[in-house]
Amino acid sequence: MKNSYLADITRGIFQENPTFRLVLGMCPTLAVTVLLKNGLGMGLAVVAVLTCSNLVISSLRRFIPEQVRIPCYIVIIATFVTIVEMVLQAFVPTLYAALGVFVPLIVVNCIILGRAEAFAGKQPVLRSLCDGIGSGLGFTLGLLLLSLVREIFGNGTILAETNYAVQLFGLNFEPMRLFAQPAGAFIALGLLLALTNMIFKRLQID
């Protein structure tokens, strides 16, 4: 049983990674990953919403009528998104401002609704909890890798606009501003997707 729970977590991180394997949630992935802190903030917000919504949906799955399950799922997800939005606005207003409209849009993130429909609505509570954690961490990993590539090449820094900012290449470094632009997000994502596919092919992981 413990192995089953572990498999539910690792599946979302590796085999069914939302960013690099399923290519889901591309809108926030491409939009907020200019800086590492933005990617981390969005990733943790999705982890919180996905984990909590999976937990509640799985707990109530026997009481939700089949005909209205999708509206019920959306109401549950929207409740947790509102809570996360209020927490961000209260405690990290600069991050909340940087993420902008993409925080409330977590409600319609296909990763969260997809896991609710495909897994949490059919599986026991603990397995749904593990699935939410795994998929959330997998999405966060994708955001972190993409934002790290874009920040390093686009700004020459790590964790810019935080107390832990690191200037990597000195004051004379000329950053590749393309990576800080929308087009750079597509280029960086394409390179990471190609690298991920190559690694999985070498490891023979389906």
Please provide a written account of the structure:
The chain is an all-alpha fold and 206 residues long. It has one domain. The chain has eight helices and two strands. The protein has a two-stranded antiparallel sheet. It starts with a helix and ends with a helix. The model has no long low-confidence stretch (mean pLDDT 91).
> Treating each run of at least 4 consecutive H or I residues as one helix, how many helices?
8
The rounded Rg comes to 18 Å
> Low-confidence parts lasting 5 or more residues at pLDDT below 50?
none
Shape: globular
List its salient traits:
206 residues, mainly alpha, 2 strands
Task: Summarize the helices and strands and which ones pair or pack.
Layout: H1 2-13, H2 26-31, H3 36-60, H4 69-91, H5 93-99, H6 110-120, H7 125-155, E1 157-158, E2 166-167, H8 182-203
Helix pairs in contact: 1-7, 3-4, 3-6, 3-7, 4-5, 4-6, 6-7, 7-8
Summarize it.
The chain has 206 residues and is mainly α.
